[in-house]
């Protein structure tokens, strides 16, 4: 509490100029009327909204597909939305009529089992979502009950008009109007990362008229009325008025606290609820939880259509033939009593007979359609999902969170991903800035390598080792170049040191006060003072450790203050007008210095710099400035550029290392100069009107000039562990990556660089929103482009720089025409590019994107984007994330994957074919809306490249096999009916038919879908190009599907005709009897069971004891069933009474025929596989052969060479950087070789 009181004394609003410099309400109330502005909120009177005309939505939210009332109808609709289930429903109904060739039980029981199991699985998965929703809805919040007393209630019970109290580090339960806070001037800090992805804290400020409402009892008699805009998805705007104490005050976005943002660095706030539940802005940006189906499942419907067409054709043939036989042959069949028949067999009415037989045939041949396919796939997918959940290599030890398949419907989609659309903050990064390097007075400090440098250097070394060289001279030269250009690591790196949060700097010249021995110690001291003074942070003493932590608006500021503390300049106190710094390593000993703050010009995305004007203890007025290097460099005095060249070189190096950079400068001011400027500045600050910001900008420009460059900082926005390696592996697998972030453009570019989305030789095609023409004519574009240069090392000698801007205009059509022209020019430029290694990146912000996503332009924009190596969309709203995802999904027709960690990513996650939620520290909104969840982005590599690859191949092979076995089985029924005069008679017993799909062939196919591995997980990661078998759909294209159908047709012909030929008039038993229909049907069924189960053993390439058990147990189960079924009473077994023991088993012909037919059925597949592996092997065939012969152990060089070849050509990731590096080395060596040869030929 003591710390809270100290902080509460600071009136933070007086530190700001641009954002908080004008008092709320001074501009007067806004006109709130007309469409879209009809909401009325009675403050502290929630009961007023429970009746008409209000009846606002409750605060209950749901991300489930079903509820208790809709589960049955919606899930039944989902099940019978499948063509096969719809057909079997019709067949089950018709089985109740005399026309059915089977009993009703044999048709209804399998359908009920299949549909019931699928519905139970859907219900279980949705129940898990419901429980997660309840965890959110059941969170507690303090609300004003009555008489100044606050009590707790659940989020879902919060109502419009409630006054709530939110405490530090808690989420806001609804959209609130800020009334007051623990700070006396009504400000609070809000983290909006869940909404816009930004990690820096936002300052919100209550209206001055409500400052006094700062304790519970103050709300005893509080009332007021808010008139404002209706619910809408705009996160950055708000229009409304507050009527309070007989006056009307204008409301601004800076006074609104949005649901799912978090209160930080503030003990508590009071607010009144404006929007609840699905009316809140974050929920307005969300979309309904969609019912997603995989591409394989959708294609299965088309295959079902093909099979249904086949079923209809053979049924029509059968019914036509039956009608002809009834009309012309039945009158001669005296034993059929043609003079006394039913309508179904009336020679006088052949049309009715034919139509009735059509119904019979449609039911009889229904086994062409695999009824158990869907339920088998459901079982397989659930088991696959359990393997994903239990994969220890996707388990995060730090958080204890495993990967989770929240739905199993999309497992195979993981193996077909073409484009990943990723959030940045919390997804790629871990929201931590580390001070790593700095440049002071032209000298670079900091020897520790960044994550990117270490990983890239290792990758380069590995690749060059594999690459080899032709001569020792060139080899030595290459190694020397590498040594010169790779990162230098600290000699003390192996020495264990206690890690310091936000500070990864290592350099003995700067730490422990050793900077005093440097030649420019006075400049270093000034550098550290700028870090310690030029900020807006508040210190907090950690009483346990005795050190200070800092509550800063941005993570950069926190890292700078920790760095200043470690260098001996500890910021420890702030008052209303001063900053206090404890300086430890001065010649006079440790000293506490006070710097009086005269003015603070805050950092904005437009200014790209922050300035503080202070008076030190000697009375000297000093301007301290930090900002984007291009902005600072343009404001340097002629005498202030002493270190410009060296600093520029260092910034270039830092940019290549993927570090975020800022330049530091200062200026000493005379008293008279400052006084004159301050008068002008105060006039601008206190002015009211639309020109206020322009006047403030001009005043700032007057002072922020003639600066003296001191140095630069380089901080590392720490990526989550393994992110660059994961992106590189996905790039090698041929997967494209787009980043959709709410962050500023500069931040997005930096992250693109350090995550290796942007390479050092990549070319940037920029589409910013502000006005500009040529690069050298626009200061803004200079600033931006220099930022790109330092982030991506873009400006190299001989390289083209491309920068396209949009115009500022009041005409929407003019803006659209300008953007359209630039998109076309950009596409043309890429087409005309002759360099095969050229890479382009498209970077676009939210405002420009809003035009690019309009109907008449979006496909042109998409065409340009897909031609670029990487795409980064910054400052985008949650709605835009979803729209971009939809555009990519629908425009390319490829599988998209959306991944994010916050509520602002929910729309993108739900719109993508596959949604991945990062289960991090920022709530569970993204996870609740996702299909899969992981705790770290790096686990996406294994989820896609290993599990995705396996699941795709397993499901593809499983489905193809299902159609094969059902065609092989179903067509034998057609052949037998044709053989018996189209009588509608089944050759198989009803119980055989039930058991075929449900028991006798289901377990082996499930084992194929669960355990099959073409290669091991390690090989999947070593040979990422194998992943492309999924996006290219090599295992489920029509060529392969029709091939398996043809194999089924061949097997059906062999099974039927071989058996008929062998047993037609051949004595079967010792006594000389021939086979009857029951025996022939049982022999044919035995052949089918053996053939299809032996076929699946040929498909499998990875065997476990479970697979062997299930396959051979299925075959054995048939004979055991036949034995037991035959032993039952003839009342139950009917024609198969003792058929195995008395008829089949004693007959050698039964066993030899089964063996002959089984071999004959599998011969074409064996021949096909032999020919393919010999003449047209696929990638996994080659790897399987290498592994089988253990060549990977015997010939390591060959194995490394194969791994190098087995990756997709990519222009992003470490691999692309290494390839470019090697090309540069070779180019240099070739030039030097030619130069030496020329000198030898021309010695003069």
From TrEMBL:
Stretches that traverse the bilayer: 302-324, 355-377, 962-979, 991-1011, 1041-1064, 1076-1097, 1109-1128, 1148-1167
Assigned GO CC terms: plasma membrane
A Pfam family this chain is assigned to: PhoLip_ATPase_N
Renumbered residue ranges of the record's region Disordered: 459-478
Active site: 423 (4-aspartylphosphate intermediate)
Record-level Gene Ontology MF annotations: ATP binding; ATP hydrolysis activity; ATPase-coupled intramembrane lipid transporter activity; magnesium ion binding
Catalytic activity: ATP + H2O + phospholipidSide 1 = ADP + phosphate + phospholipidSide 2
Cofactor: Mg(2+)
Record bears the keyword Transmembrane helix: yes
Keywords from the UniProt entry: ATP-binding, Isopeptide bond, Magnesium, Membrane, Metal-binding, Nucleotide-binding, Translocase, Transmembrane, Transmembrane helix, Ubl conjugation
Localisation: Membrane
Binding site for Mg(2+): 423, 425, 901, 905
Residues that hold ATP according to the record: 423-425, 557, 603, 626, 660, 741-743, 875, 881, 904-905
CDD domains noted in UniProt: P-type_ATPase_APLT_Dnf-like
Enzyme Commission number(s) of this protein: 7.6.2.1
Top EC class for this record: translocase
Source organism, top-level taxon: Eukaryota
Family: Belongs to the cation transport ATPase (P-type) (TC 3.A.3) family. Type IV subfamily.
Listed name of the protein: Phospholipid-transporting ATPase
Organism of provenance: Hibiscus trionum (Flower of an hour)
